[in-house]
Specification:
Blueprint lengths: L2 H10 L2 E4 L8 H8 L3 E4 L15 H4 L8 H14 L1 H6 L2 H8 L1 H23 L3 H54 L1 H17 L1
Parallel strand pairs: 1-2
Amino acid sequence: MSRDEIMSTLSASKIYLDLGTHPGMDRFPREAGLLGCVVMTNLRGSAGNDIDVPINRELFKFDDDKVGFELTIEREIRQVLNEPDRARSKQAAFAEWSASAEKRFYEETKQILNKIVSEAYSTTPSEKLIAKAVDQLMQERDQLMQERDQLMQERDQLMQERDQLIYKNKKIISSLSWKITKLPRFVAQIWSRVISYKK
């Protein structure tokens, strides 16, 4: 799926259910929450803590190692579908947290750099040297973020090209299938007419 298709699907969905192993502060649960989905997960990987996936453990996280957890999650899914607005209200804090992720990243980066400057200043007499090092770090960070955005655009473009190739391949297969079966169908028609004529 392309990024636009993913965003469209999430926007039209009421629930985002992820029962895989969560590698860290994954992007999909946060994007799903921002697009109005009620996020539900298991406890595998980083979903087992309340830092990377900070949703209510009692209501929206499930231990899929427990016998009969399928019945529990089915009951909760039905409840969310019956009262989606009520469930979303219980994840309002998660949506706000997801929306502030970029701002939080800049603030945390700023704090780290200020700490570096503070520590370096206490041991290094040259303030200009410290300022230059900080500026260089900031420039490198901006460059890395630009490269990340460019890679994401290239990835989306490749996925779109892949989808186009799959569509073309399906059309070719369909066309070949029609051509391959054309002769047997023609022979069958002739044979049917011969049998009818004999009768």
